[in-house]
Structures are given as C-alpha cells and as structure tokens.
Amino acid sequence: MSKKEGRRFKRKGPVNLQVHDIALNLQEGNVSVLSKAITLVESRQESHQQAAQAILEKVLPSTGNAVRIGISGVPGAGKSTFIESFGLYLCSLGHRVAVLAIDPSSPVSGGSILGDKTRMEKLSRHPSAFIRPTPSDGEFGGVHRKTRESLLLCEAAGYSVIIVETVGVGQSEAEVRDMVDFFLLLALTGAGDELQGMKKGILELVDAIAVNKADGDNEEKALMAKEEYRRVTMGINPATPGWTIAALTCSALYQHGLDDIWKLILSFMEETKKSGIYDSRRRTQAGKWLHTEMRRLLVERFLKDEDMKVSLQRQEQNVIEGKVLPLAAARELINIYFSLNKK
Q1: Is the separation of the CB atoms in 128 and 91 below 8 Å?
Q2: Domain co-membership, 106 together with 170
Q3: CA atoms within a 13 Å half-sphere pointing along the CA-CB vector of 201
C-alpha cells in the first residue's frame, strides 16, 4: 500500500471503525470501496490486516457464486489482449467481470512492472469491469499471497466472473489451480517447439488450451497446433476427473472464438456441478488455503521472534562458513523455536 493511501486511512480514524461501512458499500458494488478493501487485504500493517479479516468475515455469506477462471500462457501468447477481448465479450452478455492481474514485482519499488490497466484500456473503462493489477510480491505460484482474499471481495461486490491472470507459465503455476474452477492455458502456433519448452506440469493442471492469434495467414498453423495439443493431452491425466482437456483456436485481436471458449466453460461448470466435482473442489481448495495460511503465519511468527533472530544469524553464518549443512541448521533452529515457545 502506498504512503498516500496509508495517510488517507489514518485521517479517517482507526480502520476498524470503518469495517461496517466498507462491508456494506462493498456489497452494494462500490468500486472505490472494493479497491480500498483489497488495499487493506494486501497491506502488511497489523491494523489493516485485522480490518481486512473483519471485512471478509462480514461479506463471506455473499461470496462463492462467481465463475472463477485462471488464465496462464506462454510468453507472447497475448494474455492481456485475450483477457481484454474476453472480458468485453462477457460484459456484452450482461456479466460483471473482475480481473485480478498478477504482474512481476519490481525489485526496486516492489510494485507491478507491467501494469495491466495500461494494457487493457478498453476493459478498464467499462462500467461492468474491474481490473486490479497486483505485484506478485516475490511469491511463488504465479499469484499474490492475498489473491484468494481479493477474489472473495470481488465476489462480494457482485462480480459474476473472476479472472485470475498469472505471472507466467510453468510448474509453479499450480497454486492458481487451487483457487479457480476452470484453468485455461493460452498457447501459440508451432506447438511442437513450444511443447518442448513447456513443462509437463502445466498441462496436467489445465482444463483447456486455446491457441491464440488464429487469424490471417496464421489461421491454418493455429488449427494444426490445436490438433497437436489435442493429441499430446490425450495421454495426460486431466486435473478434473471425467473431463477431457479441450483444445480450441481463437483470435483475441479479431474477437473470434471467444463464444466457443465461454460455451466450453459453461459446459464445464454444468458438468462438474452435476457430478459433485465442483463442490468437492471448492471444499478441497478451502482446506489447502488453511494449510497455506498456517505455514505463512508460522514462518512470519518465527522470523519476528527476537530470540530467533539472534539464533538465525548465528546459524546462517555457520552455513555460510561451511561449518554446518543447511538442513541441520534449519532443524536446530526449529528445535530452538519450539523449546522457547513451550507452555
């Protein structure tokens, strides 16, 4: 959160006094309040975190009804162009669309390097759309540490489709699979070469592959690439039991094939709800979220402990000097921590 935003909260008094009003206005679809709530969620200040959790607890009954879509893609696949075209298409159908765009973090400022609002100008101006570019904050998994909370806030604000755009493509993208219903991979032509550089793990996570830029002279190549992806994925166990990984073509630039992708997603949602996979996946995701938060809080508490800071520095120096192996040092630190915190 910026210094300016921090001052704005401070001027209005204790954040926890605003919780009721923020939750109420959020559920009425107030975009500026939604932005403020996400800022609170992403803040590392303890008072802001407490307020954010209170807001989430109040709006929790209004969450869970949106279609959650994860989108990843190989470099150059045109993720931003696709999401803008797809988002505008969904808005034309009457949906309210929220995009949580995770950008690489600047090593200097910590902010978003790419800034998706500047890359999705038309969608960002649409009254039925909300775009939130967020730096990955150095997190693995292609998402921000608070993407799940931001997703719930968008649902509470009445957005019927939530799109999570990840940083890149690779095995580390598994985390997005654990927070969405449908996972789409954007690809390009030249599938043979592309598959060589793509880790198999990502193909085991997706529900569909869309070969983008299928227009003009590239259309025939895109059709060939689609068939190649279809052939390759036939030998892969799908992330969603009973579902066959689909391969399609589209042109985000010319808005071709977007309706086919949406129909596929609707069919997927219908099938998974009928089979019970939808509910089962949502429950599993909630459980994994608990474990993720537990690990994160344990690490934070460990690193904030003043006694542990001294022990950590000592063990780190031992590792650097080659006196002890990292695993042995880590075990010693854990033993020290739990011995200090025994009741």
Answers
A1: yes
A2: yes
A3: 11
- Distance of alpha carbon 282 from alpha carbon 212, whole angstroms: 29
What digits encode the pLDDT tens for the residues 66-98? 999 999 987 788 999 999 999 999 999 999 999
Last residue of a domain, one of 228, 249, 274: 274
Determine the Cα angle at 144 with ends 177 and 138, to 5°: 115
Q: Which residues partner with 73 through β-bridges?
A: 186
How far apart are alpha carbons 317 and 315 in whole angstroms? 5
d(CA 168, CA 173): 8
- For residue range 230-266, list pLDDT tens digits in order: 988 888 889 999 999 999 999 999 999 999 999 999 9
Is 223 exposed, middle or buried, given 0-12, 13-18 or 19+ CB atoms closer than 10 A? middle
Tell me if the pTM is above 0.70. Answer: yes
Asked, for residue 279, whether it belongs to a domain, the answer is no
In which domain, by residue range, is 33 found? 3-61
